[in-house]
Amino acid sequence: MTKQNVVPAEAVAAITAAAAVASSSPLYPYPPPRSFQKKYLSQLDFAGGRIGTWVESMKASSPTHTKAVGAIGAPVDEQYAAWIMRYPSALTKFEQIMSASKGKQIVMFLDYDGTLSPIVEDPDSAFMTDAMRAAVRNVARYFPTAIVTGRCLEKVIDFVGLTELYYAGSHGMDIKGPVKPRHTKAKAKSVLFQPAREFLPMIDGVGSSSQLLSINPQQLLSLLTSSTFPQVYKSLLERTKSTAGAKVENNKFCVSVHFRCVDEKSWGALIEQVRSVLKEYPKLRLTPGRKVLEIRPTIKWDKGKALEFLLESLGFADCKDVMPVYIGDDRTDEDAFKVLRDRGQGLGILVSKFPKETNATYSLQEPTEVKDFLVRLVEWKRPTMKALSKV
Ligand SMILES: O=P(O)(O)OC[C@H]1O[C@H](O[C@H]2O[C@H](CO)[C@@H](O)[C@H](O)[C@H]2O)[C@H](O)[C@@H](O)[C@@H]1O
Q: What's the 183 CA to ligand 1 centre distance in angstroms?
């Protein structure tokens, strides 16, 4: 795998906004022109950003795909054909992927929404199918498997319902290992990690006495002396309630403001409302996802860091014979794809039906194809394991 020039994660929102302004092509510019990076990166600063830029960014992160002719003159079908040559289907290239994994321990990382479950209007109804659950369960029998998601840990565990997995919730800020770990190396550590713990009262407010007991004295002091007691989630609920269709989801270390059911005409008003809350919290930042605005701590921690942390915890930190496979659909998954590219190890698989610039190596079109890939992985591994058990 070769190293490439990659787009900084924080720049992606800016770049897609720039792409939306500059062209209606479904392809994001790659690498981004320097002028775009300079201009739009500065507008990512939340306090200074223009509403119009954010609305463009919201549109760019949630493009409407039609079979129209793209701005660069090629029909969308042709653009897709060119794109799939660059990011071939992981199903078509299955044999090739497996031969690259020979002698290596595969470690699976799976995003949840849009990867294991289809995108639906109501975030509380994003269930995965029983067939998908069975596929994930079987994969976890043979390979260490982690779910890496923007959702809060409790909710994703509830959706997936498998106790044998590793979970990294809140975009990797809430990591938990299985009760009885399998596949770990001798030097593996127990997995329980919350790098943004100090932000909890700010996002969620002081919810319980056990939460109070778990914060350190300095954090407690700053809480008690704070004049505007921080409860971002509640403030967002309150501030956005006049926008029909807006939904605020508490993801523990992050908050999602959904606009999938908000009329496009009201997107400007919604971003104003969100912005009016965030002005009070310079330690929080905003990134757009799939018809969602994600509010999260400014710490340098993302799904890519969570992947590295989990590899280390599993005892694979400096291993040459490990092959991490990360499957995801969203721009937050790009941080993990980038880590794999930079390590020159493992591979990223982007779930998308449409051309998208990405740091992944392969693609799959939708969750049903993800399931097919997982099933094939198990079918490929099972005979080897049977043969070994007879020796
Ligand atoms: O990291 P992920 O597992 O992909 O989570 C990212 C966000 O996913 C969810 O929102 C997305 O899926 C919803 C259900 O299909 C859909 O209604 C929404 O428009 C999508 O953005 C989740 O609700 C968010 O909290 C996650 O941050």
A: 30
Please report which confidence band the pLDDT of residue 387 belongs to, taking 50, 70 and 90 as the band edges: low
Write the ipTM. Answer: 0.99
What structural domains does the chain harbor?
A: 77-195+301-389 (3.40.50.1000), 200-204+226-297 (3.30.70.1020)
186 to each of 106, 143, 318, 319, how far by Cα in Å? 17, 16, 14, 13
Amino acid (one-letter) located at 289: G
If you average pLDDT over residues 304-323, what whole number do you get?
A: 93
Strand order in the sheet with 247-250: 247-250, 255-258, 292-297, 284-289
Ligand 1 atom 27 nearest Cα = 150
Q: State if residue 251 touches ligand 1 by the CB under 6 angstroms criterion.
A: yes
Q: Which two structure tokens, joined as six digits, stand for 335?
A: 């941080």
Rounded to the nearest whole angstrom, what is the distance from the C-alpha of residue 123 to the centroid of ligand 1? 6
State phi, psi for 318 to the nearest 5 degrees. Answer: -105, 25
- 114 in contact with ligand 1, CB cutoff 6 A: yes
Share of the chain above pLDDT 90, in %: 58
Reply yes or no on whether the pLDDT at 253 is more than 70. yes
Q: 355 with 80: CB under 8 angstroms? A: yes
Q: Ligand 1 atom 5: the closest Cα is on which residue?
A: 150
Residue 361 contacts residue 87 (beta carbons within 8 Å):
yes
* 289 within ligand 1 shell (Cβ under 6 A): yes
Q: Is the CB of 120 under 6 A from ligand 1?
A: yes
CB-CB contact of 338 with 9 (8 Å): yes
Statement: the pTM of the whole predicted model exceeds 0.95: no
**pLDDT per position as a tens digit, 327-336:** 999 989 999 9
Token look-up 């942390």 returns 309
**How many angstroms separate the CA atoms of 365 and 329, rounded?**
9
Rounded to the nearest 5 degrees, what angle is found at the Cα of 294, between the Cα atoms of 158 and 28?
Answer: 115
CA of 253 to the centre of ligand 1 (A): 15
Predicted pLDDT at 391: 59
